[in-house]
Amino acid sequence: MRCPACGTGNEPTRKFCRECGAPLVRHCPSCGTGNPPSDKFCGECGTALAATAASPTTPAVSGPAAPPAAERRLVSVLFVDLVGFTTLSERRDPEDVRELLTRYFDTARRLVDRYGGVVEKFIGDAVMAVWGTPAAQEDDAERAVRAALDLVDAVGVLGSEVGADELAARAGVLTGGAAVTLGAEGQGMVAGDLVNTAARVQAAAAPGTVLVGEATRRATEAAVVYADTGAHQLKGKAEPVPLWRAVRVVAGRGGTLRAAGLEAPFTGRERELRLVKELFHTTAEERRARLVSVEGMGGIGKSRLAWEFEKYIDGLLEDVWWHRGRCPAYGEGVTYWALAEMVRMRAGILEGEPPETATDKLAAAVATHVPDPEERRWVQPRLAHLLGLEELAATERDELFSAWRRFFERLSERAPTVLVFEDLQWADAALLDFVDHLLDWSRGHPLFVVVLARPELYDRHPDWAARRRAGTSVLLEPLPVPLMEELLAGLVPGLPAGLRDQILERAEGVPLYAVETVRMLLDRGLLERRGDRYHVTGAVQDLEVPETLHALIAARLDGLAPEERRLLQDAAVLGKTFTSAALAAIGGATPERLEPLLGGLVRKELLSIQADPRSPERGQYGFLQDLVRRVAYETLSRRGRRARHLAAAAHLEAAWGAKDDEIVEVVAAHYLEAWRVQPDAPQAAELKAKAIELLARAGRRAASLAAGGVARRYFEQAAELADDPVARAHFLAAIELFGAAGRPTRRRGSPPGWARPTGPPAARSRPWTGCRPPLRCCRPRSRTRTWPPWPSGSAGWRRSPAPSTPPPGTWSWPSRSPRRWACPRSCPRPSQAREPCLTSAGEATRATP
């Protein structure tokens, strides 16, 4: 809510301005209903509202009020007029016309207010709004154009809802100097030739379009794309006035986050985008958590929808905390990776940043957003544990979830908070559990959670449909032929009809297919870029379009230079995003030598570079489409894949440290793939053993984060790889610990880590996580820790059940007398530990009286 006196933005719940103390709500003297301070009549009963009371900080002074002050200011003026309204009003009942006008004016006021403008007056079916008074912002002109585009679009939707498809709006925006009356409300705020000219510009616009003047275009062209409409002879103007048509917003505020290459028109998803916008504003106004699930096949436009929403959020006046995290496919969903990316984004931590500076940045972020010192001391270590900056002792998952949730709740108390989870189909069950936890426990906070997922999500997590029952699902279907034609026309004006029909036939409504075809034509030199558009340079009627997207991308890769193609193959092993240093380590080149090749691939729109200053991946490169990465990876030979995976693992271990567990899942995935592609190659046994060791570490890492289901999966993979029955028994014991539910439970009064007993009393089994008992792979050994510890009061605790047939080797079960135990060399624990196995895989029972 903007203060009418000083223009400062305030929270919707405030009653007085935080800057000047002026009242933000005027109460009706008749019914007591609160009204905006600029309203002259009560919206509930229609009673005239009294003049604004004196500020509580300034005593009332008797006598005549001083006249409002006047200034010359640089402002942006918006005029919007309805087209076809007169004809429509002749055919409709007067009450229906009044209701339509009321909805139109309410929509105009709401959109202007969102972008920080002030409605100056309503004139019949026209609206005049102004930016730059009473308080000026550096991006006033841009927000005026954004509001004009949204308002024109909203009128079209309004016409469809009331059965008047012919109803449309046209708008004009001008920026320049004008005389401004400070403190005035409603009519009379702005005067001068600028106002009259803006009305003439609006009259020259075609229905459904927005025209702007030269000064407005210069101030906003970094974020908005324009089409030159030539010079117009306006009424009352001696000389023709050059005007431009605003096409669409292509970047964040001030041109930030703008794509380096040509951006395809946003076509066919306007309704879905409006729905997401309105759900966000409902979340902010009601201050309630909400889930929106955007689903569709690869290439259908999920990421583009999220990108358009991010640009919209960035252009609003009020602050919004934006977070984005991606679930990587490598490692079958690295535990909480997307959530960790969001925390890094908020703290400004880069991936691979030294722990010392990363810890300082995290502490600064927590101090900024968590005001209570005691709560801060509780939240920060658990966030550091999430990022791998600090190791905590065994912690309950609910405690970790509560700390992470509390951080985002504190953010949302200052401003609405958006969390976008990309590629949720690769997420593990633990991350989905956290999303459920966040939505269940933070219902009273304005948290807007958006998840982007392919249909494979339901194959990996069949219960997700039930989990999102309280949210909103947005399903993206293939685009119809007319919209695909519009998309192609925006990308390649003048495309021959025969080639266009071929592309449409094979694209089958998937925008990615059409975009990749255009990019392939560009790579082959059959298209030429002129400004922000591509034009056909030769005859392409006989161009053979591949039958499938796989063939399309493969054909495009084959048309690259050998160095560029080899570079993409190396990058495909690293994943969707990567650094030039990692790419150099795989290819044996220096980053300086790779930069020109990477720049060429960015210009060819195969790769992109992360330019978001808030992202922990800034400066990294990434594939524009994950399908391109898949095709490039599948073209590698088995020997080539093995060598590249080993090089990637070696680079990660050298860059992060061999003992760093934050990316142990990724390193394990590289060693596992290197063994799988050539299981009979030399040194395959060593690779297999290394993969088993890293999978065990990954399981322990997941267990420390209370992600029992993820830990179980890693232990299952290790058990499948283990040839030694003793080692396999170790992992099977760990799998048995977590059970089908994925995590052990605990009964009050039992030793820490003992699970709730199940089954008949004689067979109640409880996993031990307090100290380090031996497992079935342990053998007696001297100079090691004694077992059992037999603390006082532990009578009746014993290890069971003893197998009827012991595994190979010399070993025996512990008795009541203390024994000494140690792990054999085949045990998957690190060899340097030389102590009994991890307690998380132990098993014990208590004799039942």
Strand content: 5-15%
Largest sheet: 8 strands, mixed
Q: What class would the helix/strand composition place it in?
A: alpha+beta
Record field, number of beta strands: 26
Distance between the termini: 68 Å
Low-confidence stretches: 51-63, 745-849
Oligomer: single chain
Can you characterise this structure?
This protein has 849 residues and is α+β, with helices and mostly antiparallel strands. 41% of the residues lie in helices and 15% in strands. The protein contains 27 helices and 26 strands. The strands form 7 sheets. Strands 3, 4, 5, 6, 7, 8, 9 and 10 form an 8-stranded mixed sheet that branches. Strands 12-13-14-11-15 form a 5-stranded parallel sheet, sandwiched between helices. A 3-stranded antiparallel sheet has the order 18-20-19.
Features:
single chain; 849 residues; alpha+beta; eight-stranded mixed sheet; five-stranded parallel sheet; 27 helices
